[in-house]
């Protein structure tokens, strides 16, 4: 298996084959039936273009009250468990890490993007974050541990997995755009990104 290292980001192109990707999507459909995607709003009230849900003990949410992890979906129901098809990837690639406590589910249509940000709402920043891309390709931008400076961009395709550990765990990153029609995995198109995180 090929592994690329760019600025400490460990990229596994095509880590999941088509059958593994389809199995994860089938499991996610069950998760989303229990915990539907919502359109998050930033603390300042700006709607985000990405739709979100989660699985696991915690889900990351944002609304007028702020950015945080919650033990329940906004509906008041528990988040579904993280599918074993997803936790297997974590165990295989980061065997030393603690068990993931959150699988954030981000859904992008072909106009959605995510601005440059750091992920810092987790208590134990020594634990890695693992990202799984499914469906249409997306332009991922990798920056520095402080805002600004030079960045590098990379198209992430369906089945690609990225591990963020060490300095990359604290790096600014974002999604500039999605390439419509670049994958047939999701019948209606779009992109799903899963991020597995240790929260506590
Ligand atoms: C680097 N998601 O959910 S995945 C996010 O494609 C997020 O939906 C993007 O950024 C997406 O927070 C990018 C790659 C990623 C995820 C988490 C990270 C990179 C990261 C956490 C720390 C550092
Ligand atoms: Fe992030």
Description:
The chain has 200 residues and is mainly beta. It has a single domain (4-197), classed as Alpha-ketoglutarate-dependent dioxygenase AlkB-like (Jelly Rolls, Sandwich), CATH 2.60.120.590. The protein contains two helices and 13 strands; from the N terminus they run ββαβββαββββββββ. It has helices spanning 18-34, 84-93; strands at 4-6, 9-12, 51-56, 59-63, 66-70, 102-108, 114-117, 129-135, 138-142, 152-156, 161-164, 173-178, 191-197. The radius of gyration is 16 Å and the shape is globular. N-(carboxycarbonyl)-S-(naphthalen-2-ylmethyl)-L-cysteine (MD3) binds next to β6, β8, β11, β12 and β13.
Structure described in brief:
This protein has 200 residues and is mainly β. Strands 1-2-11-8-13-6-3 form a 7-stranded antiparallel sheet, with helices on one face.
Bound molecules: N-(carboxycarbonyl)-S-(naphthalen-2-ylmethyl)-L-cysteine, fe (iii) ion
Q: Could you report the average pLDDT, rounded to the nearest whole number?
A: 97
Q: Roughly how many Å is the radius of gyration?
A: 16 Å
* Rough outline: globular
Second rung of CATH, namely the architecture: Sandwich
Question: Helices and strands in order, then pairings?
Answer:
Layout: E1 4-6, E2 9-12, H1 18-34, E3 51-56, E4 59-63, E5 66-70, H2 84-93, E6 102-108, E7 114-117, E8 129-135, E9 138-142, E10 152-156, E11 161-164, E12 173-178, E13 191-197
Antiparallel strand pairs: 1-2, 2-11, 3-6, 4-5, 6-13, 7-12, 8-11, 8-13, 9-10, 9-12
The structure holds N-(carboxycarbonyl)-S-(naphthalen-2-ylmethyl)-L-cysteine and fe (iii) ion (FE).
N-(carboxycarbonyl)-S-(naphthalen-2-ylmethyl)-L-cysteine binds at residues 104, 106, 114, 119, 129, 131, 138, 162, 164, 168-169, 171, 173, 175, 193, 195.
């Amino acid at each position: 298996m090929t592994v690329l290292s760019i600025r400490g980001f460990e990229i596994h192109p095509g880590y999941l084959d088509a059958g593994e990707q389809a199995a994860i999507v089938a499991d996610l459909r069950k998760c989303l039936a229990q915990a539907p995607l919502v359109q998050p709003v930033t603390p300042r009230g700006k709607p985000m273009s990405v739709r979100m849900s989660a699985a696991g003990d915690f889900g990351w949410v944002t609304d007028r009250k702020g950015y945080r992890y919650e033990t329940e979906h906004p509906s008041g129901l528990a988040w579904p468990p993280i599918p074993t098809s997803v936790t297997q990837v974590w165990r295989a690639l980061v065997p030393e890490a603690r068990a993931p406590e959150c699988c954030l589910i981000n859904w992008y249509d072909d106009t959605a993007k995510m601005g440059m940000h750091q992920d810092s709402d987790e208590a134990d920043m020594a634990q890695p974050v693992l990202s799984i891309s499914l469906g249409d390709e997306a332009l991922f931008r990798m920056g520095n541990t402080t805002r600004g400076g030079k960045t590098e961009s990379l198209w992430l395709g369906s089945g690609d997995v990225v591990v963020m550990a060490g300095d990359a765990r604290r790096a600014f990153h974002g999604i500039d755009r999605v390439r419509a029609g670049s994958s047939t995995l999701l019948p209606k198109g779009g992109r799903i990104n899963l991020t597995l995180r240790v929260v506590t």
